[in-house]
Amino acid sequence: MTDELNSQGYDIPPELNGQVTITTLDKIYNWGRRSSIWPMMFGLACCAIEMICTAAGRYDFSRFGMEVMRPTPRQSDAMIVSGTVTKKMIPQIVRLYNQMAEPKYVVAMGACASGGGPFKEGYNVVSGVDKYLPVDVYIPGCPPTPQALMHGLITLQEKIDKQSIRTVRWYQKEAIEPIPVPVLGPDIMDPRQYEQIRKLSQQKLAEESQVEQNDSLDTGEANDVERS
Ligand code: SF4
After folding, report:
1. 181 exposure class (CB count in 10 Å sphere: 0-12, 13-18, 19+)
2. How far is CA 147 from each of CA 8, 51, 63, 101, 184, rounded to the nearest angstrom?
3. Whose C-alpha in 41, 124, 156, 201 is 20 to 30 A from the C-alpha of 217?
4. DSSP-derived 3-state class of residue 79
5. What is the tens place of the pLDDT at every residue in 144-158?
6. CB within 6 Å of ligand 1 — which residues?
7. How far apart are the first and last CA of the chain?
8. Could you tell me the distance, in angstroms and rounded to a whole number, from the CA of residue 93 to the centre of ligand 1?
9. H helices of 70-193, where?
10. Rounded to two decimals, what is the model's pTM?
11. In ligand 1, which atom is closest to the CA atom of 141?
12. What is the DSSP string of 169-189?
């Protein structure tokens, strides 16, 4: 363990091996976080069964320090989106993500969470959770096997290893704004696109009124011709 943390060029005397380490702040900070990621306990569809297998005795992701799946977002570090993201569920998923404390990570597990999967064109399915949340790791497969999920989690650990305390978003001066929760009406609406939606609807209204005007002009001209 200390070998992995030790910075190169600093020799530790043999009698202190395993007890003392000389390292950087970034390394020890990342090592602590990557070794204690607590996933949030929730699942959306069939992929969740594979996630449950990964947590159980045979694969056992507690070997990565992920022993506890937390039933509350306030104690979770990683959101494993395991399953089909429906338009009915996405407001809840975004709300849960907002309630997680920083640092937090998102893993899109399986074809559905990554891009809609076999239901991509479905009227009720979001084509990938990354339309709303910043995804850190995508895991392909339908469903991904427990081994694939473990590979995804190791990839997440490698990503954490590369972060620096100077640049991570949760230590910047600017406040981190929560992601606007999508609104489910006749269809799902992303509040970040309200301006775009307003512009498009105004454009459409203008086009329709132009067509109506042209129609009435045409009818008027035809009547004039008939009368003459
Ligand atoms: S990717 Fe496949 S296994 Fe996973 S939720 Fe979608 S349909 Fe089910």
Report:
1. middle
2. 32, 10, 13, 28, 35
3. 201
4. strand
5. 999 999 999 999 999
6. 45-47, 83-84, 110-112, 117-118, 142-143
7. 99
8. 17
9. 90-99, 110-115, 146-161
10. 0.84
11. 1
12. GGGSSSPPPPPPPPEESSSEE
